[in-house]
Amino acid sequence: MTDAVDAFVAGFIVLSAVVGVVTYVTLLERKFAARMQSRIGPYRVGPHGLLQPIADALKLLMKEDIVPRLADRVVYNLAPIVFLIPGMLIFATIPFAPGLGVADLNIGILFFLAVSAMEIVGLFMAGWGSNNKYALLSAMRAVNQIISYDLPFIFTALVPVLLAGSLRLSDIATAQAGLWFVFYPVIGQLAFAAFIITTLAAENRVPFDILEAESELVAGFRVEYSGMKFALIQLGEYAHMVGTSFLGALLFLGAWAGPGPAWLGPVWFLLKAMGVFLLVTWVRWSFVRIRVDQILAISWKLLLPLSLLLLMATALVVVLRSGPGV
Amino acid sequence: MVPESHYVALSAVLFVIGVVGVLIRRNPLVIFMSIELMLNAANLALVAFGQRHGTAQGQALVFFVMCVAAAEVAVGLAIIVSIFRMRRRLSVDELSLMRW
Amino acid sequence: MGSVIAFWILAALVVGSAVGLVVRRNPIHGALFLVVNLGGVAALYLMMHAEFLAAAQVIVYAGAIAVLFVFAIMVLIPGKEETGPDPLRAQRWLAVPLGGFLALEIALVLRSTVFTTSRSPATVPGGVEAVGRLLFTDYLFPFEVTSFLLLAALIGVMALTKRKAS
Hints:
By secondary structure, chain B is an all-alpha fold.
C-alpha cells in the first residue's frame, strides 16, 4: 500500500512541476521569438514580463466557454482532455535523476512512443467534434502528417536504444556516462538531426505546421475552442513539446550528466531539455511553411529510408564493436 | 492475482460482441471494426494461455496477429475506398455483383 | 485485491466500448469506441505482464489502425451512414439469437476446460527480451514471411487506390 502512496505522491509532484515548467516555456518561447525579431516581447506584467504566463492563464480561465450549436457535443467536450492526457503521461517514465522519476519501466521508450502516438486521437476528436470545415481539414492533415512522421521518429529514437542496448530510459542515460550519443561519430549527429526534424513535424511546428496554418486554416483543429478548453489544448501541446525535448536531451545529450555535485543533475537535465526546445523554436522562427505534398514527400522519400539505413548502420556498428559470440 | 480463466471469459464475450457486430451492421467500415474486435479477443485469449504455460510463445503469436491485422486493415480499407469511388454508396448488401 | 478491482473496471470498459462500437450508428463514434477498446485491451496485457505487447498494441492498433479507420470515414462519409430502408431487416434480427448460441457454446467449452493447475506468478517472461529472443530464433521464418506480407500489402494498397493519370 505504501508503494501506491509513494507512486501517487511522485506522480503529483512531477505533474505539478510539469505544469509549472510548461506554463513558463510559453514565456521562454515568446521572449526568444521576440529577440530573434529584434523585439522585446512580454515586458509589462511583472519584472521583465515574468508574470505574463499567469496573467494569460487567468484570462483564459475567465473567458466564456462556447460550444458550437452543431458540434458533436460529447466528442467536442472530451477532446481537450483526451488531448492533454498523453501530454502529461509521457513524463511518467522519464527519470529526472538516477532513481528519481515516477516509474522507470523496462519498456520506457516504447511507453513514451506509444503514449505520444495517442495524441492524434484527441486531435482528430477536436477537429471532428467542432463541425467546422477548417477544423476538419486540419484534423485530416494532422492524420496524414503524424502517421507519416511517426515511423522516422521511432526509428531515430531507436538508434540510442541500440547503442545503449536497453529500452529502459535510465539505462540509456547511464550508458552515455562516457560519451554522449550526440558525439558518437557520424551516427550520433545524423540521428540527432533526424530526431530534431521529426520532432518539428510531430509537434506541428513551422515548417511543418500545415494543420494550424493560420493563413489558410485560421487556427486549425482548435479554431472553435475558447476559454478553459483552449487552455487545456495549449497545455497539452506544450507539454508534449517539453516532453519530447526531455526525451531528446535524454537520448542524445546524456540526460543528467554534467559538472558539479550529483544534486545538480536534474538542473542539467532541465537546461539540456530547454536547449533542445530552443533549437526547435529557432528552426520554427527561421523557416517558412511548406506544402502538404512536400511534407509527405520529405517523410516517405527521404527521412524514412535514411532513418532505416541509419538504424541498420547502427546495428552493424554495435555488432562489430561487441565482437563475435554475442 | 486474477486467474487466466477470467481473461479467457472476457475474450469470449468480446468475440461474441464482434460476431454480432459483423452480422447486424451494414456499413463495411463498422463490420471491419467488428472484425478487429474479434481479432483482439483472440489475442487476449492467446496472451492469457501463454501466461498460463509460463512462456512467451503466446505473445509471439499475438505479434504476428498484429502484423497480419495491420496488413489486412490497409488492404481492406483500400478496397472499401475504391468500391466507394465506383458506386458512391456504402452498404455491404449491395455488393452482390459477383454472386451467382 | 487491487488487481482484481482493476480487472473488473477494465473488463467493464472493454465490453462497454465494444457494445458501443456495435450499436452506435455514427461510424466516427464507433472508431473512437474502438480506440477505447484497444487501449483497454492494452491495459489488460500490462496486467498480465506482457509489457511489450501492450506498447505494440497502442502503437500499432490505436496509433495506426484506428487512425486509418477514422481517416477513411472522414474521406468517405462525413457524418451519415446506413440511410434508407434495410432490405434484409428480418434476417438481421436472426443475428442476436445466433450470437447468443455462440456465447452459450463458448461458455460450455470453457466450463469443460480444466483451469485448475496453478502456476507460480513470478516465472512468466513478458519483457521485450523474451519475446524478441523467441521471434528471432524459433519464429525467424514466420517473422520474415510477415515482413514479406507487409510489403505485399503496401504494394497492393498503392495499386488499388491509385487513380488513373488523366
